[in-house]
Design brief:
The structure holds three protein chains of three kinds.
Chain A (H helix, E strand, L loop, with lengths): L4 E3 L4 H10 L3 E4 L5 H6 L7 E4 L9 E4 L2 E5 L4 H5 L2 H6 L1 H8 L4 H4 L4 H6 L7 H7 L3 E6 L2 E6 L4 E3 L2 E2 L6 E7 L6 E8 L10 E9 L5 E9 L6 E2 L1 H7 L6 H14 L10 H26 L1
Parallel strand pairs in A: 1-3, 2-3
Antiparallel strand pairs in A: 4-5, 5-10, 6-7, 6-10, 8-9, 11-12, 12-13, 13-14
Chain B lengths: L3 E7 L2 E7 L5 H8 L18 E4 L2 E4 L12 E3 L12 H8 L9 H14 L5 H7 L11 H15 L4
Parallel strand pairs in B: 1-5
Antiparallel strand pairs in B: 1-2, 3-4, 3-5
Helix pairs in contact in B: 2-5
Chain C lengths: L17 H5 L15 E7 L5 E7 L1 H5 L3 E6 L10 E4 L2 E4 H8 L4 E2 L5 E7 L2 H9 L2 E6 L6 H5 L23 E9 L2 H7 L2 E9 L11 E6 L5 E5 L4 H11 L7 E5 L15 H11 L3 E4 L2 H7 L6 E9 L5 E13 L6 H8 L8 E9 L13 H19 L3 H8 L18 H10 L1 H4 L6 E10 L6 E7 L5 E5 L7 H13 L6 E5 L16 H28 L6 E4 L2 E4 L9 E2 H4 L11 E6 L7 E11 L6 E11 L6 H20 L16 H4 L10 E6 L21 H13 L10 H12 L1
Helix pairs in contact in C: 10-11, 11-20, 12-13, 15-16, 18-20
Classes of the chains: A alpha+beta, B alpha+beta, C alpha+beta.
Chain lengths: ~290, ~160, ~750
């Protein structure tokens, strides 16, 4: 294949029709994974289906029921939205960690999710805040929890003709907050060696009533660590709760040895980041009390 | 497959060109349009040498398809100076000796202007993080950061 | 040394090529366009070690748009033969085999065939259609593997140099320097430190990939436009590889987007030449970033065993340094330079240095900024730091007690003239940085470094224009601001503002032979040629003024760009160059000054670096928080660009110390051939790099200039490691000090 087609549908229906008719066509949102894969040897698709001309794909809205965000909103617009930053600071920070400023002018949540890398930065932060992903396809629209979207490295639940059209994040409960930390060797420009997203809700006395702990880059997919969350719930984030959460995170981590980190190192750092992210989320939630 | 006919606006000029579906904006700028000021360092979005503005937003032109620019505006290093006047960012890069080989310089100047549009008074740390996607192997970044902060001061009208 | 007062030297004018570079107008290797130009691409080996049984290019040739395909069969079979000394040289047969594999592929990425087509996409697709039959061999991916009994031998027919070998070996060369009585020295020592250090293969990391464009004319002449540090060496090497006369090759250097030594050899040029000849059309080849990592010339991974003996009072009495360097697929690592520089900062009454060159199935190394020196220096300066701890002597004080000075003899032979090592150490000791208190999890390290600097051949032409301005033409591509420095030296002699001197980088047909931009030699040696050429022009100008005035030339002096009568001609009105220049035509024609130099020795460069680092004890991640470089520049012609060399070299060294490394899988496939996972420092990884320029004039240069480009990368590996030792209590003997390695070491140390 020396030449690919380029399509810029104006509606979701048109996009679905194009994708349904051609299994080798690929959705183009920001292109920061798709085009990189192409440059490094992946076969060219028969056509790029650019979804950015579809109304709604590149806009977002924050209301009383939370955030509705189009699939192709670039990272920079997300973390520069002050309302979003104040409601979901961890999610904003995770989005701000994806690649360089240049990459953030292109990269999208939709791409970060559909690329289905276990090391995606936005995905654990989305899961931590209970984000849902909206999928359109030949059989209409369906909505599912972000944690149910990826099935393995590079694998998702999307069927032929389906595409992500947007995300919905429920408004945060009172006295709740999120945080995301990732570990990389440099200060910028690396893929996560480990990432940890945490969200907590406090009761009026400052005790954690609900929590979510999500890890990336330590398993085939980004995943929720219930044991770590349970270690936090019921505590006021005392040292024992933090230790238990960290231990649970390390225990749940099931990483591989690769060029970016070893099994032992990733397990260890998963605990460290869980502890640190939990502290940040807890302090933020307290401030909202 | 027939080539695509793209109408766009580059550095303020209405521009038409032909491209293939998979062709990058970087490739179109350099090879179809002769705008070789935008440099290719990696084609994978890791070096920043190909930075351009697309609809006012800083992007790596290697990871933009040329076809995507239909009806949009693209601004490159060639459009930074106006008339016979260098942009203050360009002038400060010269004064601070913020370039050695110069191949990362166009991307850095485009990115610095994007930074200063958003944040006219960046701290050293903010400048370093904003520009972390622009690799420079010659300077160790010291003189670049000094040039950026001085350009910011100049643009704000502060005495240097 | 002259106490000359300089007017332009030592100032900071804007570089002449600056506007073109900040506006995007400057043309680099990949920016050259010729009418009818084809695009080339290279098919590369997917195996690290294999015999080539056959190559079938027919499917590539059949692809529409393909205009030429070449393989090693199209190249002359140049015999393999080492040319040059044991410490440095070239084997053009091996150079040819590196450019295009002949019988074996020797690394993942080794060129096998090349295609010229009407578009890069078609050229790349054609490369994919080239079918190669291999007999896959076991790859040799480390020094240990290369030296193991029964190891696969890369070049079974090759005789090693400097060693006796029973049967074929992967060791190709041994170089040794000895002095005094080593055993007696160590017997005399009160304290002996002995350790073994390893460093990974690392890449120069220039941002501009290799690129060249070639046109072939039917009269047999080739024109090459390429990004290179040495147009004359491109001309010479390409001609030898293709077995043609060098005069058939013209090389025009484009602007160069970084090299650091990596663009001192050739990869693409002969390939593009053959494709251009075969297709009858100009051909451009541009490497991808992945190709740069896989198939250009990084620097060696190494192993250094260092043994240092000292008396209680800190005097070094013995040093023994054994260096093993990976050459990559063909012999020619910088083991010689690593050996020659390793012990050169201190006096050792008893010493031995041995350097070994070992071939492995990795890309053939090329020069990288002070080639070899950072590797041996890392070992030596780490041991010196350990010795300071053992003896409870301040590390700068210990170094001062042993630092070489004028009159000391370097282990590799020559006796030092005036040098500035002690001055840099004194400055370091008195620098506020050295006295600033540190916080928790922070540590400070110090290290020195040495590089010889090169002289070699340069020519220069200084021509006076009719408006009294001047042009300086030299043959050195400007890699970091050398043009402005050369113009400043011409301005100094001519006595006209540097803005009125236009510096030009010539091609191989517009300037006399000039060795490459490398060895920190341009401002030194080419600068010397420029000064002499400008002096030649000034002499001619004095003669013209004398002629106009009807006096003898000895009665005309030249000051600040003005001819003044003196002695018997003192009553003449002074004549500025602007007035004289338009009269040149009527007084004998144009004034053109020329000079050529070939200095045998250059003034060596020394530096002392101070590094503060902060380590996260829970993740092992470190951040350099303060860094100061102090270096003897002899005389800083353009201080900004001297500082720039110091800062850039320091940050490259920090990258080498902390994160950079090639990663290979078990089959010898490179796992990180891109900037994402090669991890060079980005802007947010480093602090401002403070600089102190020391000026101990170099007695071999008319202005006292020393080369400054390479020395800055020599100290950082140890400076960072010594800081890490202070922050963590762990002596790191293996680079890079990446977070997993640091965390593991902290753990081990804590137990």
């Amino acid at each position: 294949m020396l030449s690919s087609g380029y399509e810029a549908p104006q509606t979701v229906e048109e996009a679905v029709t194009l994708l349904a008719a051609d299994a080798d066509a690929r959705v183009l949102a920001g292109g920061t994974d798709l085009l990189v894969q192409l440059r490094t040897g992946a076969p060219a698709p028969t056509a790029f289906v650019d979804i950015k001309r579809i109304p709604g794909m590149t806009s977002m809205e924050i209301g009383t029921d939370g955030l509705h965000c189009g699939a192709a909103v670039p990272a920079v617009e997300i973390y520069e939205n002050q309302t979003l930053c104040s409601l979901w600071p961890g999610l904003a920070e995770a989005t701000d960690l994806i690649g360089s400023t240049q990459i953030q002018g292109r990269a999208t949540w939709c791409g970060n999710l559909c690329n289905a890398s276990p090391a995606a930065d936005a995905v654990p932060a989305l899961i931590a805040v209970g984000a849902q992903v909206v999928v359109a396809g030949p059989n209409g629209e369906r909505t599912l929890a972000v944690e149910d979207f990826c099935t393995g490295p590079g694998q998702t639940v999307l069927g032929q003709g389906e595409l992500v059209t947007g995300f919905h994040i429920p408004a945060p409960a009172p006295r709740s907050a999120d945080a995301y930390l990732r570990f990389i060797p440099r200060s910028e420009m690396d893929i996560a060696v480990v990432g940890a997203g945490v969200s907590v809700t406090l009761d009026a006395s400052g005790t954690i009533s609900t929590a979510r702990v999500v890890l990336c880059a330590v398993a085939p997919t980004v995943f929720v660590v219930d044991d770590a969350a349970n270690a936090l719930i019921g505590s006021s984030l005392d040292a024992a709760a933090l230790d238990n959460a960290a231990t649970a995170a390390s225990a749940a981590a099931n990483p591989i040895d690769d060029k970016r980190g070893t099994v032992e190192y990733r397990r260890r750092v998963a605990g460290v980041l869980t502890r640190r992210a939990a502290k940040i989320a807890y302090e933020r939630a307290k401030d909202r009390g | 497959m027939a080539k695509l006919h793209i109408e766009t606006r580059i550095n303020g000029e209405p521009t038409e060109f032909l491209c293939e579906g998979q062709q990058s904006l970087l490739d179109a700028l350099r090879n179809a349009l002769g705008l070789t000021g935008t440099k290719e360092g990696c084609t994978t979005g890791d070096c920043g040498a190909c930075s351009v503005m697309l609809d006012g937003r800083l992007v790596p032109s290697c990871l933009v398809l040329a076809a995507e620019t239909q009806g949009r505006t693209v601004d490159t290093i060639e459009g930074v100076a106006s008339g016979d006047q260098l942009d203050p960012v360009q002038q400060k890069f010269l004064e601070h000796a913020a370039l050695q080989c110069g191949v990362c310089t166009p991307g850095l100047i485009v990115a610095t202007r994007a930074l200063l549009e958003k944040n006219p008074d960046p701290t050293e740390k903010e400048a370093r993080f904003f520009l972390a996607g622009n690799l420079c192997r010659c300077t160790g970044y010291d003189k670049i950061i000094r040039a950026v902060l001085d350009a910011a001061a100049e643009l704000r009208g502060d005495a240097a | 040394m002259s106490e000359r007062k300089f007017k332009y030297v030592g100032t900071r004018p804007i570089r002449h090529d600056g506007v073109e570079k900040v506006t995007g107008r400057a043309n680099y290797g990949a920016d050259v366009v010729l009418p009818g130009m084809l695009q080339g691409a290279i098919a590369r080996s997917e195996h690290a070690h294999a015999r080539i049984l056959s190559i079938d290019t027919s499917k590539a040739e059949a692809l529409e748009g393909v205009k030429a395909v070449v393989t090693a069969a199209d190249f002359p079979d140049i015999p393999c033969e080492w040319k040059g000394g044991a410490a440095g040289g070239t084997d053009f047969g091996e150079l040819s085999r590196n450019i295009m594999a002949r019988d074996k592929v020797l690394y993942h990425g080794h060129a096998l065939a090349a295609v010229a087509a009407v578009s890069p996409e078609i050229a790349r697709e054609a490369c994919k259609r080239i079918e190669v039959n291999y007999e896959v061999l076991e790859p040799v991916m480390s020094l240990d593997a290369a030296l193991a009994p029964g190891a696969p031998i890369l070049h079974p027919d090759q005789e090693p140099m400097g060693i006796e070998s029973e049967g074929p070996t992967n060791v190709t060369n041994r170089l040794a320097f000895e002095g005094g009585d080593l055993d007696a020295g160590f017997a005399d020592a009160d304290v002996v430190i002995e350790r073994e250090f390893t460093t990974p293969m690392v890449h120069q990391g220039y941002i501009e990939p290799h690129a060249c464009t070639v046109r072939f004319n039917e009269d047999g002449k080739y024109s090459i436009w390429c990004s290179t540090q040495g147009p004359f060496s491109v001309q010479m090497s390409s001609a030898i590889v293709l077995a043609i006369e060098p005069n058939l090759v013209k090389c025009t250097p484009t602007e160069i987007g970084g090299g650091f030594g990596g663009k001192t050899t050739i990869y693409l040029e002969p390939v593009a030449m053959l494709l251009a000849r075969k297709s009858g059309r100009p051909v451009r080849i541009v490497m991808s970033r992945e190709e740069v990592f896989r198939a250009s010339g990084p620097t060696s991974g190494g192993r250094v065993r260092m043994k240092l003996g000292a008396k209680r009072d800190g005097r070094f009495v013995a040093g023994d340094c054994e260096i093993w360097l990976e050459a990559g697929a063909f012999r020619g690592s910088p083991a010689g330079a690593a050996a020659m520089t390793g012990l050169s900062s201190y006096t050792f009454p008893n010493f031995r240095i041995q350097g070994y060159d070992v071939v492995v199935n990795k890309p053939k190394v090329a020069a990288y900024r002070a080639p070899g020196a950072p590797i041996s220096n890392f070992a030596v300066e780490s041991c010196v730091d350990e010795m300071a701890r053992e003896l409870r002597i301040d590390p700068i004080e210990l170094r001062l007690r042993n630092a070489v000075q004028e009159g000391d003899r370097a282990p590799y032979g020559p006796t030092f003239k005036a040098i500035g090592l002690r001055d840099t150490l004194e400055q370091a000791r008195n620098h506020p940085h050295y006295k600033t208190p540190l916080g928790e999890s922070q540590g400070r390290g110090v290290a020195c470094g040495f590089w010889f600097n090169a002289g070699m051949q340069s020519s220069a032409i200084v021509s006076v224009n009719t408006d009294g301005s001047a042009v300086v033409r030299t043959g050195n591509p400007d890699i970091g601001g050398s043009r402005v420095s050369l113009a400043m030296m011409a301005a100094e002699e001519l006595g006209i503002p540097v803005e009125r001197v236009r510096p030009v980088v010539g091609d191989t047909e517009s300037v006399g032979y000039t060795d490459l931009t490398g060895g920190s030699r341009v401002t030194f040696a080419t600068g010397m040629a420029v000064i002499e050429a400008a002096q030649d022009a000034v002499q001619q100008l004095r003669e013209r003024a004398a002629k106009i005035w009807g006096v003898d030339a000895k009665d005309v002096k030249w000051e600040d760009g003005i001819a003044h009568g003196c002695n018997g001609a003192a009553d003449q009105d002074p004549m500025p160059l602007k007035v004289l220049a338009p009269k040149l035509g009527a007084t004998g024609g144009p004034v053109v000054g020329r000079a050529q130099v070939n200095p045998a020795a250059a003034g060596p460069g020394f530096a002392t670096h101070i590094c503060d680092i902060e380590v996260d004890p829970e993740t092992g991640r470190s951040q350099v928080i303060r860094y100061t470089t102090i270096q003897d520049a002899g005389k800083a012609v353009h201080p900004s660009y001297v500082e720039g060399q110091m800062q850039g070299g320091a940050v490259q060294g920090i990258g080498w110390a902390l994160n950079e490394e090639y990663l290979w899988d078990d089959d010898g496939v490179i796992e990180n051939p891109g900037f994402l996972d090669y991890r060079m420092p980005v802007a947010s990884d480093v602090p401002m790099i403070d600089t102190v320029i020391v000026e101990v004039p170099n007695p071999t240069h008319p202005y006292g200039v020393r080369g400054v480009g390479e020395t800055p990368i020599v100290p950082p590996l140890a400076a960072v490691a010594n800081a890490m030792r202070a922050a963590t209590g762990v002596r790191f003997e293996q680079l890079p000090m990446s977070p997993p390695r640091v965390l593991e070491a902290i753990d081990r140390n804590g137990r």
